[in-house]
Amino acid sequence: MNVTGTDPTHVLQSVFGFEAFRPYQESVVERVVQGRDAFLVMPTGGGKSICYQLPALVRPGCGIVVSPLISLMQDQVDALRQRGVRAAMLNSSLGPDQRRTIREKMARDELDLCYVAPERATRSSFINLLGRANPSLLAIDEAHCISQWGHDFRPEYLELAELRQHFASVPCIAVTATADPPTQRAVLNRLGMAEDARVIAGFDRPNIRYVVEPKGDNPRRQLHGFIEREHPGESGIVYCLTRADVEKTASWLNDHGHRALPYHAGLDDATRDEHQAQFQRANDLIVVATVAFGMGIDKPDVRFVAHLDVPKTLEAYHQETGRAGRDGRPATAWMAYSRGDVTRMRRLIDDSAENEDRRWTQRHKLNALRGYCETVTCRRKVLLNYFGETMDGDACGNCDNCLQPPDTWDGTVAAQKALSCIARTGQRFGSSHVVDVLRGAETEKIQRHGHDALSTHGVGGDRSKTEWRTIIRQLVAKDMVEVDVTGYGSLTLTEACRPVLRGNETVEFRDDFRGESGTSSSRSSKTADRDALPEHGPDRDLFEALRSRRTQLAQEQDVPPYVIFNDKTLRAMVEHRPQTRGAFRDLHGVGDVKLERYGDLFLDTIRQHA
Q1: The domain containing residue 301 runs over which residues?
Q2: How far apart are CA 571 and CA 490, in angstroms?
Q3: Are residues 122 and 241 in the same domain?
Q4: What is the DSSP letter of 497?
Q5: pLDDT tens for residues 381-427?
Q6: 241 DSSP 8-state letter
Q7: Residue where a domain terminates, one of 181, 200, 219
Q8: Is 584 inside a domain boundary?
Q9: Is the pLDDT reported for residue 368 higher than 90?
Q10: 167: nearest Cα among 61, 68, 42, 48
Q11: What residues pair up with 490 in beta bridges, in sequence order?
Q12: Which of 200, 217, 240 is a domain's end point?
């Protein structure tokens, strides 16, 4: 495709079929087209790929995109080719002759974009190839993988700094949906980018409703109830911690009326590829998976992401839940949470082969996740605060705590007792010892340190160990108490606890986390979908006919249906019912090439339903 030097807005309209840039896209595109670096943090579904794909078309040469997964590359390449872009990928899924052909095209300047894995991009042979070719830009997708502070650190990403040095005059754009402030600083430093290269488009996904339920005795039944209430017959992803849980949950869902497939690293490559392909092509399939699944999924109509086990970090949670509702329509992030899951996750961290600095980081991030789960305030506010973003107001109106404020109890006196006990024991002991002192235990450790003589010894004998541990955990979540995870888990007080100790501030605790026998009691609070079509009638009939046409074309070309047109474009066809090629071209997501390829076919379907 020869659009070198063309105005970016014209390329956006003629190639991608979008009338105007989304927020932040235009400034980033302009920056890269001018040859300047950019580090873009933008929510999933916000349009990050446009920010490097479009400049690669406008600038002379071939854009190099470093991407971590073959499936992610394949999706992007398929979608670009549908728009007439000369796109290719270099990875282990290709044979020697295919790779040779692509290298030759790159050397002859016959490609607009080429996707490569990080380990291939840093090979000397590839660097030499780029030296003979004409790279227009270097794009690094999932850039948080560069930082050891990130939730998904990958050592092979570290070597991209060397690739960057080899082509210092080529603009570099790094993109991610998930990076807290320490990770952002590490990415800038590793890639040698200036501070002004950082563009933070925000982390909020307002169309996603966040829900956390106490995990009961039958979490699969809780999951089933959630799906039946909120998203029956719709596409979703369910995350489990172990392969065994993935298999059992997928089987259970199938036995209870859902279409579900497992996905984990224990399956052979062919089975995983087949399950992923089925998920991408269906609109009512659920994939039950470990975290091995999802990064390469560009499916826009995932209506829910559910966690039957807690993720490791808020970054992982934000990225995984971000796979829901990429089309901008209402979606749900649902989680079943328990203290036992946190304990199990912490044990995995402690037993990992990571160095102690890395383990400390993961423990700290797990504590932040726990605070999110147990908060009584707006979940979106807690989530955005973690990433350094401030939300306007104190309520989003689209999380369970805002829609159905949790039952709370006045825990001011209990908090004062716990905080005083931490102070009087010298802020040197962990929660187990503090709880023993509060309950008046006569352990050897208490007697050795003389803590049986403290005024707080026995003041909490009216509460169980479980209750006191819950209280302390929620004090940690409220930032009144910190845990020294680098040492022996000793508890220390923060400035935030002083008003409580002085009696100037009250403390409310969640009632549903006092114990562990929580069951699903949440009522449906499904967000209205203003773009939804009626279940019956002419509009629904036309939509189904258009979807059938799309499925037929996708099967003929062996690509996911949304690569032809996504649901948003199909709904635009239903709403506007264009009768001419010009009117069809004006629809969202069409563009010049798709008009030529598919315009007459879809116009014919529309006319048949006039």
Answers
A1: 208-403
A2: 57
A3: no
A4: G
A5: 889 988 888 888 888 999 999 998 888 889 999 999 999 999 999 99
A6: S
A7: 200
A8: yes
A9: no
A10: 61
A11: 484
A12: 200
Q: Which residue in the block uniquely carries the two structure tokens 């603009």? A: 171
The amino acid at 132: R
pLDDT in tens, 11-61: 999 999 999 999 899 999 999 999 999 999 998 888 899 999 999 999 999
Residues 251 and 377 in one domain: yes
pLDDT at residue 329, rounded to an integer? 92
Q: What is the 3-state secondary structure (H, E, C) of 551-586?
A: HHHHHHHCCCHHHHCCHHHHHHHHHHCCCCHHHHHC
Q: What is the pLDDT of residues 573-608, one digit of tens each?
A: 999 999 999 999 999 889 999 999 999 999 999 999
40 within 8 A of 65, measured Cβ to Cβ: no
Whether residue 57 is found in the same domain as residue 167: yes
Give me the DSSP letters along 18-55.
-SSPPTTHHHHHHHHHTT--EEEE--TTS-TTHHHHHH
Q: CA-to-CA distance for 515 and 518, rounded, in angstroms?
A: 7
SS3 of 493, please?
A: strand
**Closest listed residue to residue 208, CA positions, set 291, 329, 377, 57:** 329
Place of tokens 């799906």: 227
Query: What is the C-alpha separation between 14 and 16, in angstroms, rounded?
Result: 6
Three-state SS letters, 371-431: HHHHCCCCHHHHHHHHCCCCCCCCCCCCEHHHHCCCCEEECHHHHHHHHHHHHHCCCCCCH
Antiparallel, parallel or unpaired: β 481-484 and 490-493: antiparallel
